[in-house]
Amino acid sequence: MVNEPETSKPFLLPGALFAKDGDYVITTVLGSCIAVCLWDPRLRKGGMNHYKLPLWNGDGLPSPKFGNIAIVKLIEHMLEMGCSKRELKAKVFGGGAVLQSSSGFLNVGQRNIEVAHEFLAQAQIPIIASDMGGEVSRKVIFNTQDGSILMKRSQSGQ
Hints:
Layout: E1 11-12, E2 16-19, E3 25-30, E4 34-40, E5 45-50, H1 67-80, E6 89-94, E7 100-101, E8 104-105, H2 108-122, E9 127-132, E10 138-143, E11 149-153
Parallel strand pairs: 1-3, 6-9
Antiparallel strand pairs: 2-5, 3-10, 4-5, 4-6, 7-8, 10-11
Helix pairs in contact: 1-2
């Protein structure tokens, strides 16, 4: 969980997740990172994670900065709020190729996208909306009360 002052408009930094009873408007900004937004349309509850790297390799603590940990933890938090896994829907954003190395773009974003697809498929949670890949960053605003997303892409090269 994100440790923030109580607000109805939390901002997620990389490696954070937020899933709490109540109506929230969660915002984050993504480059190669991924945000998975889970929503239960029956209970009208939602949560979001923001992970930086695809897989935790077992070194150190299992942090939600890793996709395989962040997705599982977000699902756990949704279930703790009374949601049913079969009701959950996913909306996934990010994974842009925005990090450059001397040999060109690094593929962290693409690997993050693959982890989102793999772990949501394993959990049998359908992805009903997404905007991933490319060479742009994104700002995502998720309303947990109605499941709506507002997303803005950066201009390429900014």
